[in-house]
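User: Sequence in, structure out. Go.
Assistant: Echoing your sequence, followed by the structure tokens.
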Amino acid sequence: MSVDDAETRLRDTLDSIAQSVSPSPDAYAKARSEWQRRDRRRRLIMLVLAVLIVAVADIVGLWALHSLAQPDPPPRHERIDVIVQP
């Protein structure tokens, strides 16, 4: 048995198996719709993640600006007596 003989037998066997397989007429359409669905889902998840990151960054930035900018306390309304000496 030579290598060419084994190769020929293998090819014949695989050809006979391939002849018995009947392809589905809409297999490509099903696979393509599945790929598109996954792609849409991936894009939607990435969009939501990007919006969430921007929103969190905005909230943290606004919180930091607000916490650092403490307003001056209002003036106290205490009575001050002024004594004028001659």
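User: And one key feature?
Assistant: Helices lie at 3-20, 27-68.
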